[in-house]
Amino acid sequence: MINGKRVAVVMPAYNAERTLEQTVRELTDVVDIRILVDDSSKDNTAAVSCKLGVETFIHDANYGYGRNQQTCYREALKAGADIVVMVHPDYQYTPLLVPAMAGMVASGLYDMVLASRILGGGARTGGMPLYKYVSNRLLTAFQNLFLGVKLSEYHTGFRAFSRELLEALPLAENSDDFVFDNQMIAQAVMFGFKIGEISCPTKYFEEASSINFRRSVQYGLGVLATTMSFVAHRAGLRRLPRYDAAGRKVIQGYYSESAKRV
Hints:
By secondary structure, this protein is of the alpha/beta class. It contains nine helices and eight strands.
């Protein structure tokens, strides 16, 4: 708990058996709620999670990274979290930064905090492939131009959110795939939420999840489409539920039947 606010860590997981324990062991005492959603893994991710005392939910099918996050946030809000930090259980990002990120949200100065691999120059040092680094920089520059903000990167998977943001954004209108992350930032900008960043080291190794080149290209195209839809909606050229306050929220229980507590 920080400043009287309950902190939840949520972990969207798929085949994270080998790195999950190391991730959970680094979570500090400020974390009040620990939730893992297993997207129908083929390994023993859920069993390891239960053994570690993490509240565990299993999807009845492999619905995708975006849908996994929807379940994560819904269950964290149900559990009474005031601040929710998403941590990938593949140990690519250090959970030791959770208190700092949650503290930035608890201060009331930010509604969303992104752990940036670019700030401090840690991306390439940590082993980020050159093509990923170059595409990250180009896509980030493109989005900064059209979204009207200035972030060091939009593509980190380590993020903290206020309860108010998670309740307001129509997250159930987003993709079930990896571009969900990017759509969420665009929504936060559209709705006027305050976004902060913190420098974060990263590690690329065999067990760490990373999408292949083909999926990376698909993600990049999704980022471009997200940006253009943002511009079209803001200009009044096209109305999209994703950027509309009346769009579907995760707190409304969409897809709740797909996850069971174990």
